[in-house]
């Protein structure tokens, strides 16, 4: 059964909608810089330059929620824009997140630690599932609502779950993706792992030191053929292949040889009925950490038999948006197909010594892009691959 994509929405540090994100990508304009609030101002991050109140006002959000939920509402509303509700269609929403409403919890917790009385009712926003319910409420979805939390592969796994529910006949249409905001916990958590770069990150560069964190959300609308016959929506692209594999090598590090990544990419190619040479572009996980980039590079060489297609990490634009990254980068993959573009890997100067692979350095235009492979890897060796194809 074919899985059709009829809507997409995105908000990140480089833009508050699809059009703005595409413009930044084409102009090779990063948004990684010193943060705007008390705990991000010390670091280079990819922060959305709108306060919570500004998000509510600019996008006419009716539902209250944490920053994670608000970012998700913005992207999901854009994806579901001009889509109508039909009684004949079973429509669901699946959202990935890793921090949930932690941004609100942190404020109340700091009050308590300072001897002030916190508003315990605000802890209602903390659970990851609450953010999904709030996003669903904002766009009027009252049926199946679910949450995926598998660290940085969350959004990709949400997309996969949506596709499987359509394939199994349990849903006809589903809004899928992920959302995460910057929190003090995540920033200092990654710093404690010594994989946080205080300067502009350098994915796949030999001198890479670590990642920059970002925030945002990305969502797609998936439809079955039955749904299309009712909605009559224009098809943007097709989700042709997907896979999830776990190498269970380490709690926070990828297998040095990329075992899980290899399995994930090969299984996705098999499901899509594609040969490796048919992939025109790879939007890599590419976190700029020493372990991930070397591991993923080795996996590329294995999967593509040494003939690695053009690849890049767009995290050099947005920062690593954690659970949202698979959703945001899925939108970028579709934009690549629609516009014949290959997006560059910013800030790259020298290839990784062990592999010699060189990512895309400058924007490439007027390219025939038929199939894009997108990787999202999470802690615990949770490796996810999506393949998007032109109609």
Mean of all residue-level pLDDT scores: 94
Q: Rounded to an integer, what's the Rg over CA atoms? A: 19 Å
Count of helical regions:
12
Order of helices and strands: EHEEHHEHHEHEHEHEHEHEHHEE
Distance between the termini: 14 Å
Which architecture name of the largest domain does CATH use?
Answer: 3-Layer(aba) Sandwich
**Can you summarize the main beta sheet?**
10 strands, mixed
Q: Quick one: overall form?
A: globular
Number of structural domains: 2
Helix percentage: 25-40%
Structure class: alpha/beta
- Under CATH, the homologous superfamily of the largest domain reads Thiolase/Chalcone synthase
Number of distinct beta strands: 12
Describe the structure.
By secondary structure, this protein is α/β, with parallel strands linked by helices. The chain starts with a strand and ends with a strand. It is built from twelve helices and twelve strands. The protein is globular. The protein has two domains: 229 residues, Peroxisomal Thiolase, Chain A, domain 1; 147 residues, Peroxisomal Thiolase, Chain A, domain 1, CATH 3.40.47. The strands form two sheets. A ten-stranded mixed beta sheet has the order 5-4-6-7-1-8-12-11-9-10, with helices on both faces. Strands 2-3 form a two-stranded antiparallel sheet. Helix 3 packs parallel to helix 5 and helix 6 packs across helix 12. A hairpin with a 3-residue loop joins strand 11 and strand 12.
């Amino acid at each position: 059964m074919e899985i059709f994509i009829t809507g997409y929405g995105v908000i990140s540090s480089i833009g508050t909608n699809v059009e703005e994100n595409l413009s930044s990508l084409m102009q090779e304009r990063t948004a990684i810089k010193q943060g705007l609030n008390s705990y991000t101002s010390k670091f280079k991050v990819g922060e959305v330059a709108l306060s919570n109140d500004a998000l509510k006002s600019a996008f006419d959000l009716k539902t209250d929620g944490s920053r994670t939920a608000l970012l998700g509402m913005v992207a999901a509303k854009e994806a579901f824009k001009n889509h109508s509700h039909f009684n004949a269609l079973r429509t669901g929403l699946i959202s990935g997140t890793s921090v949930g409403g932690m941004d609100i919890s942190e404020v109340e917790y700091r009050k308590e630690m300072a001897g002030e009385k916190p508003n315990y009712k605000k802890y209602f926003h903390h659970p990851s599932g609450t953010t999904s319910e709030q996003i669903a409420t904002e766009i009027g979805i009252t049926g199946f609502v679910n949450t995926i939390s598998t660290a940085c592969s969350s959004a990709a796994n949400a997309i996969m779950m949506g596709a499987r529910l359509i394939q199994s006949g349990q849903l006809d249409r589903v809004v899928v993706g992920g959302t995460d905001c910057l929190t003090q916990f995540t920033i200092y958590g990654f710093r404690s792992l010594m994989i946080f770069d205080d300067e502009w990150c350098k994915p796949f560069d030999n001198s890479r030191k670590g990642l920059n964190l970002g925030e945002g959300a990305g969502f797609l609308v998936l439809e079955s053929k039955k749904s299309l016959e009712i909605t009559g929506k224009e098809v943007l692209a097709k989700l042709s292949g997907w896979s999830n594999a776990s190498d269970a090598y380490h709690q926070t590090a990828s297998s040095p040889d990329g075992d899980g990544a290899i399995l994930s990419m090969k299984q996705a190619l098999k499901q899509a009925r594609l040969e490796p040479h048919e992939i025109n572009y790879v939007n890599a996980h590419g976190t700029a950490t020493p372990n991930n980039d070397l591991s993923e590079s080795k996996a590329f060489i294995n999967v593509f038999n040494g003939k690695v297609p053009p690849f890049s990490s767009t995290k050099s634009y947005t920062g690593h948006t954690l659970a949202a990254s698979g959703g945001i980068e899925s939108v970028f993959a579709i934009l690549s197909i629609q516009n014949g573009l290959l997006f560059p890997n910013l800030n790259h100067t020298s290839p990784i010594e062990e592999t010699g692979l060189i990512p895309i350095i400058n924007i490439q235009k007027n390219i025939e892009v038929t199939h894009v492979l997108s990787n999202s890897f999470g802690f615990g060796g949770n490796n996810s691959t999506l393949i998007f194809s032109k109609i």
